[in-house]
Design brief:
The complex is a heterodimer of chains A (265) and B (192).
Chain A lengths: L5 H8 L6 H10 L1 H16 L10 H12 L10 H32 L6 H20 L1 H4 L17 H19 L6 H24 L2 H18 L5 H11 L1 H20 L1
Helix pairs in contact in A: 1-3, 2-3, 5-6, 8-9, 8-12, 9-10, 10-12
Chain B lengths: L2 H11 L6 H20 L2 H18 L9 H22 L1 H19 L6 H19 L3 H12 L4 H8 L3 H19 L8
The chains are: A mainly alpha (265), B mainly alpha (192).
Amino acid sequence: MKHYSEEDLIAYQMGESSEARSIGEHLEQCAECATLAESVAQTLRVFSAEPVPMRTPIDMDLSWQRLRGNLAVLEAAPKKKRRWFSLWMWPAAGAFAAAVIMVAVGLRMHHMPNTGGAQETATQRASVTDALKSLVGRHQQAHPINGHGPLTDVPSDDPQISAHLDSAERLLTTVNHEEGPLDEATRAQAHDLLLKNAVYTQTARDRGDLAEAVVLDNLGRVLIGLDHAPETPKSTWQLRLEMNTDGLLLDLRVLRQNDEHGSSR
Amino acid sequence: MEKAEKEAIRRVVAGDRDAYRVLMDRHYAAVFRISFRITGNEADAEEAAQESFLRAYNKLPEFRQDAAFGTWVTRIAMNTAMNLVERRNRDLSVYAPRVSDEVGEGTVQVASHRAGPERALLDMETATLRHAAMASLTPMERTAFTLRHMEEVGMAEIAEALGVPVNSAKQAVFRAVAKLRRALEPVAGGMR
């Protein structure tokens, strides 16, 4: 008889399963799965919602007084002009840079001495490869070992590293999605993560987990950038562009999923 | 978004700090509630709520008013509370006394006034176990689980608030339940 996994039964008990009907029928016949399902249900009952303390009007007044003391008088940002500039400048700048590189590559190939068909083809191929490498950018350079990502499926078995990867992923997602200069809290978080990251990178190296060490090393470079980012809107844009965090985010997710699968084994 | 809120935002951005009270009065309860679910204690919930409203205030000039302020500030609160849990976990010297404080508060909430000493002891043990089990979750797992199970927030909304794919949010919830179930095994008489 096929048994359902713990995850299937958790999804079933939480109303998130797409196979609810077949699981329900199975539970009527399988005592083993029924016991596990009941254990999950019992867990959910134990962790049901506790009452939330009420906020009285006096509490609200105190909260407001406390908050008001920290509020600086705001000045409206020149929002529309900057957004128009931001939206159009970066794609145009990217296209311009690509065009310049292609012209440079073209000119180089044009001025190259004609020393024979096979050699010319090889040289041209190398030039194009160099140009492509420079276009691909910093993320690739940060993975001399792995190329496109962490080539590992080994979990780290350290809940602190899992939590660190969680935090780093959330921080980078926040930085990627927000506009304007980084706020104090984000900077402080980047600083905290940077300190921990150095320790985890060394731990990964000592453990011989080079794939994880490379990703953490790359994360460290990004965190240094965040920690020292100047506070102008333009420089923050430049920082986000340079970070190219999409690839790094993917790497972090792969490592985190390794840990997830490792803990569910 | 309501006209009164739009007007309050316009005034705040124009330099009137006191207009922010309108937004705080309307949304503080929801933000505090979410923060309490995630942090698990009143003092940290208050701190997270304060920080969330402060962050929202500082970002108000960039806030796009096509979204609801309440939804926006609640999402900020989820992340802020989660980061606070993380800081507490990291600084064990701060966290440890808070757990015992919290257990005391939890006991008052759970026990009935007429409960005898045995019942009170059992409640205290249960509360201790619950808090210890919750403390073993990562901030992401804890947040995703409390929002889904206690606040009945949809997976898509949780995923969006935490900036992760829906499947990751789902996995975080399932992983949390599995860990909590194992944490209860010693008292549940050998659950599988």
